[in-house]
Amino acid sequence: MEPRVLEDDVNESITVNSEALHHIFEHCADIVFRPLNLTDRSHILLVYIEEMTDSTKLEQIISACMISRDFNRLTQYQVVHRISEIAAKVLKGSTAIFIDGIPYAYSADLTAFHQRAISEPSNEASIRGPREGFTEDLKTNLSLIRRKISHLNLKFELFQAGELTQTEYVVAYIDGIIKPELLEEVRRRLQTIRTNQLLDSSYIEEYIEDRTFSLFPQIQNTERPDTVAASLLAGKAAIIVDGSPNALLLPMTFWAGFQAAEDHYERFLYVSAVRLLRLMLAIMSGLLPSVYVALTTFHPQMIPLALMLSISASREGIPFPTVIETLLMELMFEGLREAGLRLPKAIGSAVSIVGALVIGEAAVQAGFISAPIVMIVAGTGIASFAFPSYSLALPFRILRFPLLILGGCLGLYGVAIGLLFIIIHLVTLKSFGVPYLKPVAPIGKNFWKDTIIRLNKRFVSSSQRNQ
Amino acid sequence: MKKRTVILGLFVLLVLLVLPGCWDRHEINNYAFWIGTALDAGKDGKLVKSAQVAIPADFKSIREGGGKGQRANIVLTASGQTVGDLIQQIQDKLPRKVFLGHRRAIFIGEKLARKGIKDIMDQFTRNTDTRMRTDIFVVNNGEGKDVLKINSPFNQFSSIVAVDQDRYCRLGDTALRDVLLDIGRDGIRPAMPMIDIAPKNEQEKHEVIEVKSVAIFNRDLQMVGEVTGRESLELFWVKGVLQNLLIPEEMETGNITIYESNLKKNIRTTIEGDRIKAYVKLEGSGRVLENNTDIDISVSKERIPLERKLNELKSKQVEATVKKIQKQYGQDVFGIGEEIHREHPYKWKEIKHKWDELFPNVEVTVKVKIKIQNTGAIGKRVPGIGDRK
Predict the structure, then answer these.
(1) Beta-sheet pairing, A247-250 with A434-435
(2) pLDDT tens readout for residues B242-295
(3) Which of A2, A52, A193, A363 has CB atoms 3.0–4.6 Å from A369's, for a disulfide?
(4) Total domains, chain B
(5) How far apart are CA B160 and CA B147, in angstroms?
(6) What's the rounded Cα separation, in Å, for the pair B37 and B118?
(7) SS3 for A19?
(8) Would you say residue B193 lies in a domain?
(9) For A12-71, what is each residue's pLDDT tens digit?
(10) Is B77 found in the same domain as B189?
(11) Is A384 left (phi over 0), alpha (psi -120 to 50) or beta?
């Protein structure tokens, strides 16, 4: 029998254990060692992190120790034999209890974080429907989902990644609805993650997405438990990472990015109209500047005469070519938006007022920029805010610029070439084996029922749902 | 080495992408928008071409309320032998590139029309810049140039005024495309609306355009005559391009005015030996605008005889118009030849060469079928004038 490595085992002597832990937690100011000397002269040592422990429960433990050493009164405790294991648990928020003369330790889960309350998701607000959003705590988030789907087939598979961060994350799915191949593929890709840090769900997204160099997001993210629940019921998998209020949903299709959670709560006729509007605005957000430039500089015969004379009149004496003008204004707008995003609220509004006044009013008045361009840029800006999914709005925002340059160089022909490349890319793109444009391309049976419009739920089976 | 090739390839791609478009790229302000063309016969058989060209800067000042009454356009004139040469001559007078894609109207002086427009039509079909929706007019007793110079209070461009007016003055709007299609067919001769320039008077400070006649062309595209007023409307009705029609008719006890829309025509032809017969059926439904007779239109018993009477009257009138055109000008502007072509294709092959001789002798029977669908708010005329018995 080989001699066991003694250092890692919990010793009978509390002093030895204490020393070992003190050694492990050197320079860790947040870890509290609390020795207790009981009336029967036995010694007890509690090791915990102050800010992560529920102090009332801790007091209960102490009194339990003092009276009877009856830990059964505490529901959540485990017996642990190894020092390293106990150290890991302490770091996760558990309280370690060493009793002199016993060669193992108890680990009690008295975790109580200071955590954000469940609040309305700020980026995915809805007028009708549930108002709760994910928080940063994994357990809270899982409970939010479980409350929506109280079925034994809802599975939460626990994983851990990040050598230093030791972050836990969960793959959620519904057994019997999710395709086994998809689940297998998700597990396989998750195993390839080699990282020492995992601070947000986006870290996982980057490791497991299909195409690294695609502008389009291949994994959806959401703050809403109801969206996650609906997606799970539609056969998708969700990844929820501890410390991140954004759950990942996969596979993602292009159309999912056009759907707000509210789409399934409002009446379907209104939703269908809004979805068409969104699609139109999406096209506008990508194409409006380039088509304007192409039409005015290459194909003036396509603009109605009265409109063209107005445009022509407002362009008299403008020093820049239309392409440069549009490019400048678009850059200014993107700059304004980026600056406004990070500034404190009080300054942010000031910046946008100054920006709008300077760009919109003064530039036109001074004759640097023609008025139609300001309208085009403003229209494009509004259109780009109409996406329910922020991450899907980004590719449209970026692609606007190459399309604009193509439109300025080659006219509508250039815009068509650019669009062709984008469409080729989109139809070849796959997210976890699912074509990105499904069910429109490749065309699926009854594809229209829940994509571009939404039919009444009576006519849409759950497998056709496209959340 | 490999990296260099890639960089070079990318550079070539970029150059290829950017350069080829540059030659076609024109800022909107580098174009001179040609709104209307006038073609006239000049001295010594020369062709005179005038262009109405938009001035965007003036357009702006009108919008801002500054120079009211500004024209926002200039009229340039050049004379020469061919239309292509004239376009270049006008281009020489402009600092911006001539742009024909937005031309709205072509005006042909009557003198030139009577001389023949065969030589100028080719250019319109060959030039890829030509807009087929451009309207085409003949200027009655005048020069096309004068139309371009009119100052209309409605629009800075008299060409656009003419086009808009054509749309609302019941004479259909005849586009260049329609004329070219008629020219290409054997069984129909082109007809196009004519413009009159009404002189200024005290009430009307501006010169006004009036569209009330139709010019009739022969096979060689020479204008041979014109019909005016009611006859011109009837011509277009039988041709099938009229949209709506106002019929003021004199009855025994007064007059009645009916507005007819949904106009339809139907021509059937028969050939018996040398005799060619055409049966024209004209249909329409409409509402009564004015009733100065004692007829109570709301009563079927009184309305149906009225309809019958109107139909009879109208049939005679249209028949007379057709006969007049047959005898006076001998040009098949109605497309009866086309109808024969459709119904008797083999016979048509034999007679199409001599259609101009045959047409005046075609026996045309016209049957008008007008329906009164809406009598207006009251049946009889204003109460008290003709009380119900």
Answers:
(1) unpaired
(2) 888 888 888 777 888 888 888 899 999 999 888 999 999 999 888 888 888 888
(3) A363
(4) 2
(5) 11
(6) 17
(7) helix
(8) yes
(9) 888 888 888 888 888 888 888 888 887 777 788 889 988 888 888 888 777 776 766 655
(10) yes
(11) alpha
Task: Among B228, B254, B283, give the residue marking a domain's end.
Answer: B228
Residues B83, B192: one domain? yes
Cβ B20 vs Cβ A298: under 8 Å: no
Q: Identify which of A297, A301, A311 has the shortest CB distance to residue B25.
A: A297
The number of beta carbons lying within 10 Å of the beta carbon of residue B105 is 27
Interface probe, candidates A292, A295, A301, A309, chain B, greatest B C-beta count within 10 A: A309
Q: A321: which chain B residues are within 8 Å (Cβ-Cβ)?
A: 27
Are residues A145 and A230 in contact, defined by beta-carbon separation less than 8 angstroms? no
Q: Is A297 on the interface with B (CB under 8 A)?
A: yes
Nearest-Cα distance to chain A for B218, in Å, is 33
Q: Using the beta-carbon criterion (under 8 Å), do B27 and A321 form an inter-chain contact?
A: yes
Q: Are B67 and B135 part of one and the same domain? A: yes
Q: Record the tokens describing residue B61, joined without a space.
A: 């000042």
Chain A residues near residue B31 by CB distance under 8 angstroms: 300, 312
Could A297 and B56 be called an inter-chain contact, meaning their C-beta atoms sit closer than 8 Å? no
Q: Which of A298, A305, A323, A324 has the highest number of chain B CBs within 10 A, making it the mutation to test binding with B?
A: A305
Optimal mutation site among B13, B19, B29, interface A, most CBs of chain A within 10 A: B29
pTM: 0.84
Last residue of a domain, one of B228, B257, B284: B228
Range of the structural domain that residue B220 is part of: 29-228
